[in-house]
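Hi R.,

Quick one: here's the AraC family transcriptional regulator sequence you asked about.
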Amino acid sequence: MDAVKTYHDVNKADGSLSFGISKMEDIYQKRKGRPDVPHRHDYYTILVVKEAEGNHIVDFTTHTLSNNQVYFISPGQVHQLTEDKPTVGYSIVFSSQFLALNHILVDFIEDINLFNDFSNTPPLQVGIKEMELLTSYSEEMLRLNAGDSAYKYEAIGALLKLLLITCHNLCSLNQLDTQTMEVGANLVRNFKQLVNQHYKTWHHAASYAEALHITPDHLNRVVRSLTGKTAKEHIQSRITTAAKRLLYFSPLSQKEIAFELGFSEPANFSAFFKSCTGISPSTFKQSV
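And here's the predicted structure, written out as tokens:
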């Protein structure tokens, strides 16, 4: 049994569906205004927020809901929406299967740097005109999804990719020349995959640089230029995210969590956690 509520299927009534879109105000009405519980999905989620008040907590980081925001939530991220009034916007969900069926490579999702399955993931703040454009894409996806036209999902897939490209181009971190993007994207993708595989045992950037056959300085330079964070910050974020999830959702003791995450002594884990978050593991557990 999952320690945290997990949604495995895009559509719980029909597990064969790999795409879904709903108006956020309709979801609010179905919940009768009650905040949802902390949960995660086995699929991707985009929240196109036109008007909102409240908070959106993603992996224990609280973001203030406001107008003209876009949130990107990766599979496995724990999040919770608390709304002070009905949010106006769209919730778009899709699986890796939907990407594959519409010839959207997973590499594309990783290269656009909008979905981060660890580290801080603030919303993309857009202007009024940009939100009007994203709204038009969302409305057309909503219309197509409710109908039964020929090539329905191919059309939705094209609109989804267009929405993602538009958001990518609006993101300030991506104002780099094309050559830099192309050369560095593959390295960053491989680095992130290694972090997900080895964060429990490889705690230093040098280990990842060695596996990638480059120097730690080169790894840091490329990762920072494409993501805005150093390799060390990515590694620390992955470890602290895992630690927070274990502290909150698992019955493991602090000592057991320390060993689970590759620390030889609980004191080393406590010092690392406090250095990265500003509070001790025990204080964090009491505060959430």
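Residues 5-173 form a domain with the Jelly Rolls fold (CATH 2.60.120.280).

Cheers,
M.
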